Amino acid sequence: MAECSKTAYIESGTSLYIKEKGRKSSVGFVVDVPPVEQFVRLRVGDLLIISRDSSDEQDTSPSSANGTHKITCPSGYLFDSVKPGEPISFDDGKIWGVIKGTSISEIVVTITYAGLKGTKLGSEKSINIPESDIRYEGLTSKDLRDLDFVAAHADMVGISFVRDVRDIVVLRQELAKRKCSKLGIVLKIETKGGFEKLPLLVLEAMKSPNPLGVMIARGDLAVECGWEKLADIQEEIISICSAAHVPVILATQVLESLVKTGVPSRAEITDAANGRRASCVMLNKGKHVVKAVSTLDTILNSQYTRAKAELKPLMLSSPVN
Fold first, then answer.
1. Could you name the domain of life of the organism this protein comes from (predicted)?
2. Pick from 75, 146, 237, 267: most CB atoms within 10 A?
3. How far apart are CA 258 and CA 286, in angstroms?
4. Helices marked H in 55-197 — which ranges?
């Protein structure tokens, strides 16, 4: 073990020496230094430039200078969909901004909401554009490669950010090509469009012989639809799926404090109890996930009668063509 009396910057491969009596003796090299997360700290009024990541050789590290920050994003759909004046959020709604300008290769954002001392935006964080018309159709080439693996090794496949019946039609065709009639399909409801078209999405998916389920992905759904509407949206999704006899997965931050710290909050206990109306409750990973599983089992199987869903009429949000 080595100890430094002053700040030192090292990386994997750095040589270490012992210096004594005017001599330096090599003792080895530094190995397996964990990478340091790169981030920018955004404040209200800052400019954020999102650059299209068009080359694997491009430096994708976030950078900052005089209140202007730059990050890269590999998604071409983002650049094709946004317009000036539309809102954009980052990292599950921790940071909000407004699109100031766009071009083929860049999007300029003015930050309108962040923490008082600024909020860190690291790599691989979510980006939501709730009011933009996302120009996206079907499965990408990567999706198809992933589907080959899923079809061979998994029990079910999830459709993230499903918005339109066409997404399900394409998936059904691809599964038929692979002769996967028993592979489960999970519709992940994460957007306003997906929620509004849920009855049509469910009806289309039920045409397939594949088992079907619906996930209430509350993280993106809250950002896309508004935090204050999430409870009503959750109830509506459960009611629609109950009427259609489709299993529901309740996901995102269930018993989150318990999973991470070992101690639950009072509010999340009652939130977890609402999972009785769902068919499945999903927990995130964490140090205390085993304890969380045990607690969740106790909550869901309490002595009180399991709540029955109030079955509402299955209304179509738009006319069938």
1. Eukaryota
2. 237
3. 9
4. 76-81, 141-153, 165-177, 192-196
- 271: nearest Cα among 230, 310, 240, 237: 230
CA angle 88, 285, 93 (to 5 degrees): 15
Q: Residue with structure tokens 């996901």?
A: 251
Separation CA 212–CA 318 (nearest Å): 22
| Residues 97, 99: Cα–Cα separation, whole Å | 7
Render each residue's pLDDT in the chain as its tens digit; 321 residues: 666 667 776 777 777 777 777 677 776 777 777 776 778 999 999 999 999 865 543 445 566 667 789 998 887 788 888 999 999 999 989 999 999 999 988 999 999 999 999 999 988 888 999 998 877 666 888 889 999 999 999 999 999 888 889 989 999 999 999 999 999 999 999 999 899 999 999 999 999 999 999 999 998 999 999 899 999 999 999 999 999 999 999 999 999 999 999 999 999 999 999 888 899 999 999 999 999 999 999 999 876 645 554 545 545 444 445
CA 281, CA 274: separation in Å to the nearest integer? 10
Which residues does residue 51 pair with via DSSP β-bridges, in sequence order?
72, 106
Q: Are 48 and 42 in contact (CB under 8 A)?
A: yes
Per the CB < 8 A criterion, the answer to whether 185 and 212 are in contact is: yes
Which residues neighbour 179 within 8 Å (Cβ) at sequence distance 6 or greater?
Answer: none
CA distances from 113 to 98, 128, 265 (A): 10, 14, 26
> In the structure encoding, which two tokens stand for residue 293, read together?
């599983």
pTM given for the model: 0.76
Q: Which residues pair with 188 in a beta bridge?
A: 215
Q: CA–CA distance from 319 to each of 138, 187, 220, 238 (Å)?
A: 22, 21, 26, 22
